[in-house]
User: Fold this.
Amino acid sequence: MDFNQMGKLMQLASKIDIDKITRLSEKVDLGELIGLVSAMDEATLLKMTKMLKTSTNGQPKEPPAPNGDFYDLSATLTDGQRQLQAQTRQFMEEKVRPVINDYWQRDETPRELLLDGFREMNAISHIFNEDGTRKPDAAVTEGILTVEMARVDVSTATFFGVHAGLALWSVVMGGSEAQKKALLPGMLSMETIGAFGLTEPGVGSGVAGGLTTTCRRDGDEWVLNGQKKWIGNATFADFVVIWAREEESGHVHGFIVRGDNPGYSVEKIMGKIALRAVENGLITLADCRVPEADRLQEVKGWRTVADVLRATRAGVAWQGVGCAMGAYERSLTYAQTRKQFGRPIAGFQLIQDKLVHMLANVTAMYAMCLRLSRMQDAGIMLDEHASLAKVYTAARCRDTVALARDLHGGNGILLEHEVARYFCDTEAIYSYEGTNEINTLVVGRAITGISAFV
Assistant:
């Protein structure tokens, strides 16, 4: 051995931890290990070294925490909105998530649990003032609430949206001052729960011109006949806002119909594959008698209905954001922990492609809805703006949950992994508050100046 070799050997020996070598020799044949490593080509050695460097003290590094807000859009919110966001997320993760699969399977809304949580947060008070006027940044705040609910469970967001959106807006836009004074305090505190009865068994998208539920004046009462279908919260709501067409004039009226009104009945719709934790009802009005005092006095025909739908459509777009975000974050966690071929599947190229596609969808949806809500708060949002957001988020949500289910393989059809619920619930988002086809035509009419409605 020449001096150069001797020098290299001494330099190498100075870098060796004898204690570690001794411990290693107790686990493996060092001669065999050295032989295997020395036989590797340079590329294989570099790959193995890189893999070993991902460990610290023999333990894998902690993987990045899932974060659906990749562009940190939350940083653009106010301190109050971020506080409400964190409070809602904690409630949904700690209280709702552990039990929602059970309620979903049973076709039941965990309403006492939800009401307790929303009352503790004073959720609606962040959106509406006591007199029914809106807070300056109400639409953004409502969007943040919605996305945090839907991130865990879309049914919860729907329960909240029906009451605090459709029903409450109907009273605000269509009620007299006396009616608002009587109804709003209970609705804002969620001591009184409302529902919204527009869709009918034979009339969905064509309800604007084909409303078949009728009403006629009889002294100090109105007599209502017809049916309403898919009415969320209907099985337990304190009242339902029923929209009906007057037999003689054809004018559209809104009525506060309570469960004890003569001629009113509701049947829970069973057999759904989506939003099973929303209790949808089939309402039958058979000579249902409603006092004139419960007719919404300031309704301006169909225009008021359209105004309510426009005001709440952004909320459904936000539901798509939350559902897709939840599906992405659950999928990333699963990919980081699920191992195949001796390694987490998150390290496979095809899995990373799915995750990046999902994250891109969520990011684009989030940014679009945030801008939409800021337009709504500024009073410049039009029908076509809300409709475009609904079209885009519903479609991209569908895309995202399909990738999530695919990423989970066979486990993707099990409720315990949650993406199966997201996968199913997305189908409701795609269809309600205006189908994607109808909303597409609303946008198409705006950009071409030509109506393609039949």
